[in-house]
Amino acid sequence: MSLRERKKLQTRQNVIAVAERLFEERGYDNVTVAEIADAADISVKTLFVYFRSKEDLAFADTSLIDDVASAIERRGDKSHAEALVESLLTRTDDTAGLEAFHRGYGQSAALESGLLRMWAAWEERLVAALAAEADGPATPRMRLHAIALVGIIRTTTSPELLDAVSGLTDSEAQRVAEDWLAEAAAHVEP
Fold first, then answer.
1. Is the same domain home to 153 and 74?
2. For residue 159, what pLDDT band results from cuts at 50, 70 and 90?
3. Are 34 and 122 in a shared domain?
4. How many Å apart are CA 120 and CA 33, to the nearest integer?
5. Would you call 190 helix, strand, or coil by DSSP?
6. pLDDT, greater one: 152 or 189
7. What angle (nearest 5°) sits at the alpha carbon of residue 167, between those of residues 163 and 168?
């Protein structure tokens, strides 16, 4: 990769990180593109070279689904749901991210359709991984299984889990989240 390409990638990653931090601190609806550009030390015009809209920034980080799909592909003797849960649990050691998600994204009416599109894209990604694993075309069973696997991820952003961990210490909240995920996985693959 050339120096120019590396600098462009660094700028893109920095803008994503800055936007995520601001969204999680103040909420998506309370952050402007100009504030993101200023915090990332670039102009608004430069920001729009990298992203078409503020909503694109909200969904630019694909690392979670990349990690989950990779975990499912190399799952060994674990079930798909177990591999997915393990992947989710290795991404965080506290539940601060859950509260940050709700503050940043979960309460924004402007992001509702984007979240639905994201969940659908993740479903497609997992269907492709399941079909590749089976060495054949996708089947209705694979589609339903992918929907259920994405459902496990979606439950981690639910208001019910947020309520369950509110007011707990980090270690208590982590145990509640782990139990939550284990129960969800058991319902997907009993």
1. yes
2. confident
3. no
4. 26
5. coil
6. 152
7. 100
- Tokens representing 68 are 């989950």
First-last CA distance in the chain = 46
HEC assignment per residue over 104-132? HHHCCHHHHHHHHHHHHHHHHHHHHHHHH
d(CA 149, CA 53): 29
190 falls in which pLDDT band (50, 70, 90)? low
List Cβ<8 Å contacts ≥24 apart for 78-84. 79/185, 79/189, 80/130, 80/145, 80/149, 80/188, 80/189, 81/148, 81/149, 81/152, 81/184, 81/185, 81/186, 81/188, 81/189, 82/185, 82/189, 84/149, 84/152, 84/153, 84/185
- Domain range for residue 36? 3-53
155 neighbors 187 (Cβ within 8 angstroms): no
Q: Taking Cα atoms as reference points, which of 94, 103, 106, 68 lies closest to residue 178? A: 94
Clarify whether residues 45 and 74 are in a common domain.
no
Residue 58 lies in a domain: no
What is the per-residue pLDDT for 76?
Answer: 87
**CATH code: domain of residue 27:** 1.10.10.60
Same-domain status, 19 and 70: no
